[in-house]
Design goal:
- This protein is α+β, with helices and mostly antiparallel strands and about 140 residues long.
- It has three helices and four strands; from the N terminus they run H-E-E-H-E-E-H.
- It has helices at about 1-20, 75-85, 130-135; strands at about 40-50, 60-65, 110-115, 120-130.
- It has a four-stranded antiparallel β-sheet.
- The termini are far apart.
- The relative contact order is 0.18.
């Protein structure tokens, strides 16, 4: 009788383990899907007063996500993403204003971009002589 009870318990536990997930209602997954047809493009952009990012605290910071669709806290996500797409994420190739007139006052502004562009890690830093030079040399990407 003891062997029969153990056998019945073992069969019940095995059946519950194997068939339990098949019964009842399906619950939604709590983990997000990691599969996407788009390579990730998500950046954190900062602007700081100072000669370099290591010695200057950021004055402003925004997020910019370009894939699968433009979003983030950047004020012009669509324009910034399209400008980055034109240069394939190469911040040094962003177009600049050729005929802008700025003062020669040295008040350095450092911009940074950290994150991922189309699946590739990005770490960009550039220092402009002043705010005017930054406006003419960075298009909409750092205009926030």
């Amino acid at each position: 009788m003891l062997i029969t009870a153990r056998l019945a318990t073992a069969i019940t536990l095995t059946a519950t383990a194997l068939l339990g997930p098949l019964s009842g209602t399906a619950l939604p997954s709590t983990t997000p899907s990691t599969h996407s047809i788009y390579a990730p493009s998500a950046l954190v952009l900062t602007v700081a007063h100072g000669d370099d990012a290591a010695s200057a605290a950021p004055d402003r910071a925004v997020t910019l996500t370009c894939a699968p669709k433009p979003s983030g806290t950047h004020p012009a996500t669509t324009l910034a993403c399209s400008q980055l797409a034109l240069v394939d994420g190469d911040f040094d190739q962003l177009p600049t204003e050729e005929h802008a007139v700025c003062t020669r006052k040295y008040d350095p502004i450092t911009v940074t971009a950290q994150g991922v562009w189309r699946g590739t890690r990005v770490a960009y830093e550039h220092t402009f002589a002043n705010e005017c030079v930054k406006r003419t040399g960075s298009t909409a990407v750092f205009a926030f």
